[in-house]
Specification:
seven-stranded parallel sheet, about 45% helix, alpha/beta, Rossmann fold, binds nicotinamide-adenine-dinucleotide, single chain, 12 helices, binds 2'deoxy-thymidine-5'-diphospho-alpha-D-glucose, three-stranded mixed sheet
């Protein structure tokens, strides 16, 4: 039985990936290693937690000794590394945590993989999950290619860029078998409601303002989270060692248009008059250093490995809204406690 480590498996994308792997590969033992920060939630994995090929290990990737001991004990055949601090706004208010988890944590995992695999890399793979934000910000035209030079502009994207470089350096210097993918914005169930879409869904539910940064013209390329998980599965199994793959939805939306579309769906689902939720839209102070536009060219992944997004945006967006409305207890649970304090601090001066 192969043993596969997935880090950050209690988070948004990680939980979808763990579910996919546990259900699809009964002959793999899936070990989900997660610190359970505010963004990690084992309730995301309730449906698979009792499966015999699944195990949860609570650990902090910054804790070098613990990580080394876990690798020693489990002798993983493969690693898929998603654990990270992932919210740009938090990286602006507290950059150091991003440096620790995203950079130091990644180096600890690379060192631990090197240490147990020694120089016998046959059948082994270290897969690092990254973001399109490492490429910087686009104007009105063009898309990010795998060859686009790195130009990270927030502490979050700089920490992710740094970890990408380190992963490549371990491949070049030590021959560690690595693969990297850089994905655009994900949406779907189980996303923490600090991110634009679930934040707005939750605020509409409570009749709170919908904070749109600046003039709402910034553009993001949205991909349904299960399509990302399927791309990760494909790249993990068939990606070329040492290569990078871009993953994206080819689905660009200006933030204001996206929020208006969401308001329309929410009005319909909540039985409100068309136009009711739109009245909650409130323009607030822009994010510092706000990247204007991201857009991914995923033709390498499509042409070489045959991936393409399966979920059409209209379908995925509606499914997402329905999920949050049918899982209000989940939303209420994660929006109490510390998150409430963060939210109040974050939007107080905007
Ligand atoms: P998330 O914030 O929802 O989840 C992150 C998970 O990592 C949480 O479960 C958290 O508890 C865990 N974690 C954080 N610090 C840790 C530490 N020190 N040790 C162990 N576990 C720790 O993030 P997400 O949106 O699911 O993103 C997952 C990965 O995908 C990240 O690497 C992110 O950079 C990347 N990514 C995200 C998106 C997106 O749109 N969300 C797009 C492209 C790439
Ligand atoms: O592009 C991939 C990245 O997408 C991932 O690497 C990150 O982990 C993920 O958080 C996401 O980053 P963004 O900053 O693009 O996502 P966020 O949901 O925070 O914001 C989306 C857009 O909406 C962005 O232009 C900022 C804007 N925004 C966000 C919030 C939270 C608002 O206008 N108002 C808000 O309240």
């Amino acid at each position: 039985m192969k043993s596969i480590l997935i880090t950050g498996g209690a988070g948004f994308i990680g939980s979808h990936l763990v579910r996919l792997f546990v259900n699809k590969y009964p002959n793999y033992k899936i070990i989900n290693l997660d610190k359970l920060t505010y963004a990690g939630n084992l309730a995301n994995l309730k449906d698979i937690e009792d499966k015999p090929n699944y195990e949860f290990v609570k650990a902090d990737i910054v804790d070098e000794d613990t990580i080394m001991a876990i690798f020693d004990a489990y002798r993983f055949d493969g690693v898929i590394h998603l654990a990270a601090e992932s919210h740009v706004d938090r990286s602006i208010s507290n950059p150091k945590e991003f440096i620790m988890t995203n950079i130091v944590g990644t180096v600890n995992l690379l060192n631990a993989a090197r240490s147990i695999w020694k120089d016998d890399f046959n059948g082994k793979k270290f897969y690092h999950i990254s973001t399109d934000e490492v490429y910087g910000s686009l104007g009105d035209e063009g898309k990010f290619l795998e060859t686009t030079p790195y130009d990270p502009r927030s502490p979050y994207s700089a920490s992710k860029a740094s970890s990408d470089h380190l992963v490549r350096a371990y491949n070049h210097t030590f021959g560690l078998p690595v693969v990297i993918s850089n994905c655009s914005n994900n949406y779907g169930p189980f996303q923490f409601p600090e991110k634009l879409i679930p934040l707005c869904i939750n605020n509409i539910r409570h009749g709170r303002p919908l904070p749109v940064y600046g003039s709402g013209t910034n553009v993001r390329d949205w991909l349904y989270v299960e399509d990302h998980a399927k791309a990760i599965d494909l790249i993990f199994h068939e990606g070329k060692m040492g290569d990078t793959y871009n993953i994206g939805g080819s689905n660009e939306w200006a933030n204001l248009d996206l929020v208006k579309k969401l308001c329309e769906i929410m009005d319909h689902k909540m039985g409100k008059h068309p136009g009711t939720s739109e009245q909650l839209i409130t323009f607030v102070k822009d994010r510092a250093g706000h990247d204007f536009r991201y857009a991914i060219d995923s033709s390498k992944l499509q042409n070489e490995l045959g991936w393409k997004p399966e979920v059409k945006f209209a379908e995925g967006f509606e499914k997402t809204v329905e999920w949050y409305l049918s899982n209000k207890a989940w939303l209420d649970d994660v929006t109490t406690g510390n998150y409430t304090k963060y939210y109040e601090g974050m939007y107080k001066n905007r």
